Every structure is written in C-alpha cells, then in structure tokens.
C-alpha cells in the first residue's frame, strides 16, 4: 500500500492540479492536506474569508470523489510531517511557488523529507509557464523587461492539462479536522471563493471575451474577467484559462495572463520585491506624509477618480486595473509618498493580493521596477476623462458627487462656488493644492 500526502497551498482545485493527479496515479491512498498557518491569518480579513470559502468548497468536491480535505492548524512543515508520519506516507507532493515564504517552506520540507525518507516532489500549476524555465538571450536568471519575455512565453511549449481524479481514497482513521468558521471579511461586496464559483465565472467569462481588447480599460464597463482572486488561490487553473482563451483567439487576454507569469519569474530571482527597489538606486526621495496617505487610503483626496478607485477597493476587495494604475500613480508620482505603504494598503484589502503581482505592479508604477519608462506620470484628470468620459464610474463609488452630471464630476473644484459648497466632498489636499493648476487638462 503506497500512501501519499498532497499539501495544498494556493492550488485549491481538483481540475488541472498536477500534484493531486500525480498522487492519485502513483499511490493507493492519498491525504489531501491544508495547513492553516496562524502567522498569515491576520494579513487580510478579505483574503482569509475567501480562503476559508475555497477550503470548504474543496472539501465538498473531494468528498464527492470519495476523499476529504484534511485540515490542520500550525506550522505548515511540522504539521505536514506529523500527518505524513501518522499515515506512513512515502510521498509528498505540492505545487512549487516563488515567494520567500513559499521557498523557505519548500527548503524546510526538503530537509525533513530527506530525514524521514519521504520522496518530496514539487509540481507546476501556479503559473502557465514555470518560473525560471525561460531565460533571457543575453544571460541572467530572469527577464527584466516584459516584451521579450512575452515573445519567449508565446512560443514556449506549455505542459498538458491533467485530468481531474475520479476517485480519491483517504487512509482510514485520519481526523479530517474542523473547517474554520467563515468570517465576514471587511468588504461588503466581495466575491465568494471556491473552485465551483471560479469555474462558473470562468464559463460565463468565456462568452464575454470578444470585446475585451476594447473594454478592458473602460472603467464604467467593468469588462474584465474579475478572475484574479480565483487565480490567486488556484481555484481556477491559469493554464486551463489560457488554453480556453487561446482557443477563442483572445490573444489580448492571454497577454494579460502572461504579465502574471512575468512577475512570478521576477520574484524567483528577486525575493525582496516587496521591500527593495528592483532597479538598483531607483528609489526616489519619497515624502513621509501620514496625513496625505490617510486621505488616499480613505478615498478622501478630493480627486474624484482617485477616491472612486480607493472606495471600490474597500467595498469589493478588488479594484479595476486602470483605477489601480491611477491611484498608485497618484500616491507615488503626485503626492510623492513612498510606494511601500501603498503596496501594504492594497495587500491588506485585495482578495487577489499576492506578492509578485502587487509588488511587481507597484514598482512598475513607482518607476523602481521593470517599466522601460520609469519617469512616466499619469495625469489623473486626463485618465478620468479618457476612461470614464461621462463620470459613471466616479458616481458609482462616490455618492457625494451623484448630483454632478457628466464629466464635470472629475473636477469639482471647477464647479460654481454655490454648487461646490453644497457638496459634502473635500477640496484637494493641502500638500497637493499647487498641483491643482496643472491637474487642469
Ligand atoms: C498597483 C497595482 C497593484 C496590483 N496588484 C495586483 C495583485 O495583488 N494581484 C493581482 O492578481 N493583480 C494585481 N494587479 C494587476 C491587475 O490590476 C489585476 O490582475 C486585475 O485588475 C485583476 O482583474 P481581472 O481579473 O478582471 O483582470 P483581467 O483584465 O481580466 O486580466 C486577466 C488576468 O490577467 C492577470 N493580469 C492582468 N493584468 C495584470 C498585471 N498588470 N500584472 C499581473 N497580472 C495581470 C491577472 O491574473 C488577471 O486576473 C495590480 C495592478 C496594479 C497597477
């Protein structure tokens, strides 16, 4: 009787899950395991809620196939080794990952498994193309610029999707462990987690792919897939999604998924991405301005397009990509505030918040990362007029401005004084008041 443990991390699905498929093919008994690490529990109530929903869904799906999801709480390495010992496992499989946290866990598991003579195998599945596989022509361990990476990525051979195991046999006598209570999260309009919900949304999305190239920057249209959180937790396989999009010739969409892979391979060679500037000496002299930061966090800067984005973040635990660009650029390039507290705020609220994509994008916007034009500035008013021409997006998230019609909503400081006085909406920030002049397109 061969017994394997599959340690789930951020691959919370049964479809196209190489670690789970291999365990079911090579062992007679399989323990699907998830370990809740209390150290991560406090990071983001939104993500914790989504995680717990995803675990409940995974357990139900595994039970439908005769299996179960075994849950433990504690140090992931110690708990995994304890379970492996209890069931006499000779194999341990899990998805390979790139962050400093994940790689420390992998290193510790490797050492423990060697000691216990358990064969540890790391599988693909978190990205489409494995990080580290594509190497830049001029040398170096990772691509630093997106375009050449994208070209290499497009012509790379992708692995085959693996079949969903039909039956999973868990050894007798393993305590399943109690499912954590699903908390309220912090965002009232947050999406619900789980593979079942992710697959349902994916199915719907595939019928809406055609207008993506025209609509993906259009703020009121909300014409993006909103699958990021499902990708973040692996409820949807990025490879299965990319294959389905490719079959529909949706290359513009597939290109966005390539950005996700791009940042994963960056992090593999630059694990300090959340704290250190990626380009040496690229960090600006940032201002410390707690008051401006607080106004930005609260969606009270007095610049409506910025405030709309920041309020969407709180309400939904998600923000449109165009709004992420505008709000992040406003904090760093206009207020001159360090990108790290901005990154931390996004990381607390975003359900899709993960180290490679959050930190990689923040550094891109701040001009410390992989952007080939690091001194780019976004004019938030021009951005608002272009991507929210009638002000629909702003009015959706800033109800104080509901009575202001059309594009006038983007520059409330230009409204006649008596109307402006009637609005319960702040004027531009003190530290930013001079900029109001050039903010005028
Ligand atoms: C400052 C800032 C912070 C960000 N933080 C995160 C984050 O923590 N997690 C995250 O998943 N994305 C992050 N993004 C990227 C992007 O905004 C989101 O992936 C996207 O808005 C998610 O919505 P969607 O699924 O509808 O995207 P779609 O437009 O439908 O795109 C499909 C998928 O492609 C990937 N993708 C799209 N754009 C990017 C991008 N610029 N970088 C990397 N992957 C991309 C995502 O996985 C996304 O789900 C950030 C962008 C910025 C500017």
UniProtKB/TrEMBL annotation:
Its cofactor is FAD. The lineage of its organism: Bacteria, Bacillati, Actinomycetota, Actinomycetes, Micromonosporales. FAD binds at residues 212, 224-228, 253, 256-263, 352-354. The keyword Flavoprotein applies. PROSITE patterns: DNA_PHOTOLYASES_1_1, DNA_PHOTOLYASES_1_2, PHR_CRY_ALPHA_BETA. PANTHER family: CRYPTOCHROME, CRYPTOCHROME CIRCADIAN CLOCK 5 ISOFORM X1. GO terms for molecular function: deoxyribodipyrimidine photo-lyase activity; DNA binding; FAD binding. Residues 2-128 form the Photolyase/cryptochrome alpha/beta domain. Keywords: Chromophore, FAD, Flavoprotein. Signal peptide: none annotated. Coiled coil: none annotated. Belongs to the DNA photolyase family. It comes from Paractinoplanes rishiriensis. The record marks 286, 339, 362 as: Electron transfer via tryptophanyl radical. One of its GO terms (biological process) is nucleobase-containing compound metabolic process. It comes from the Bacteria. Transmembrane segments: none annotated. InterPro entries: Crypto/Photolyase_FAD-like_sf, Crypto/Photolyase_N_sf, Cryptochr/Photolyase_FAD-bd, Cryptochrome/DNA_photolyase_1, DNA_photolyase_1_CS_C, DNA_photolyase_N, Rossmann-like_a/b/a_fold. It holds the Pfam family FAD_binding_7. Binds 1 FAD per subunit. The keyword Flavoprotein applies. This is Deoxyribodipyrimidine photo-lyase.
């Amino acid at each position: 009787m061969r017994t394997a443990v599959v340690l789930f991390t951020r691959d919370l699905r049964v479809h196209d899950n190489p670690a789970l498929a291999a365990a079911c093919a090579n062992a007679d008994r399989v323990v699907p395991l998830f370990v809740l690490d209390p150290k991560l529990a406090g990071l983001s109530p939104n993500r914790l809620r989504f995680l717990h929903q995803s675990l409940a869904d995974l357990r139900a799906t595994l039970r439908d196939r005769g299996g179960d999801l075994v849950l433990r709480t504690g140090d992931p390495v110690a708990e995994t080794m304890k379970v492996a010992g209890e069931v006499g496992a000779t194999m341990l499989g899990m998805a390979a990952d790139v962050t400093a946290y994940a790689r420390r866990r992998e290193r510790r598991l490797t050492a423990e498994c060697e000691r216990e003579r358990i064969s540890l195998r790391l599988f693909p599945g978190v990205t489409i193309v494995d990080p580290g596989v594509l190497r830049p022509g001029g040398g170096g361990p990772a691509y630093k610029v997106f375009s050449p990476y994208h070209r290499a990525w497009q012509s790379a051979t992708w692995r085959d999707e693996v079949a969903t195991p039909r039956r999973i046999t868990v050894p007798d006598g393993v305590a399943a462990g109690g499912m954590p209570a699903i908390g309220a999260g912090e965002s009232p309009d947050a999406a619900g987690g789980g593979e079942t919900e992710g697959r349902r949304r994916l199915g719907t999305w595939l019928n809406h792919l055609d207008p993506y190239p025209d609509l993906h920057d259009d703020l009121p249209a909300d014409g993006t897939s909103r699958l990021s959180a499902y990708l973040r937790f692996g409820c949807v396989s990025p490879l299965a999604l990319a294959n389905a999009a490719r079959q529909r010739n949706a290359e513009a969409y597939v290109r966005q998924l390539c950005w996700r892979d791009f940042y994963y391979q960056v992090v593999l060679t630059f694990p300090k991405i959340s704290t250190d500037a990626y380009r040496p000496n690229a960090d600006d002299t940032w201002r410390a301005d707690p008051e401006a930061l607080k106004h930005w966090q609260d969606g009270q800067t007095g610049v409506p397009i910025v405030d709309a984005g920041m309020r969407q973040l709180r309400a939904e635990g998600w923000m449109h990509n165009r709004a992420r660009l505008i709000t992040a650029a406003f904090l760093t390039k206009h207020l001159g505030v360090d990108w790290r507290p901005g990154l931390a705020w996004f990381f607390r609220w975003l359900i899709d918040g993960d180290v490679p994509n959050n930190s990689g994008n923040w550094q891109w916007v701040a001009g410390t990362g992989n952007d080939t034009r690091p001194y780019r500035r976004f004019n938030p008013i021009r951005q608002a007029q272009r991507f929210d021409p009638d002000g629909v997006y702003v009015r959706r998230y800033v109800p104080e401005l509901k009575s202001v019609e059309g594009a006038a909503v983007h520059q409330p400081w230009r409204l006649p004084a008596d109307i402006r006085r009637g609005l319960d909406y702040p004027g531009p920030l003190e530290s930013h008041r001079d900029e109001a002049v050039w903010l005028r397109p």
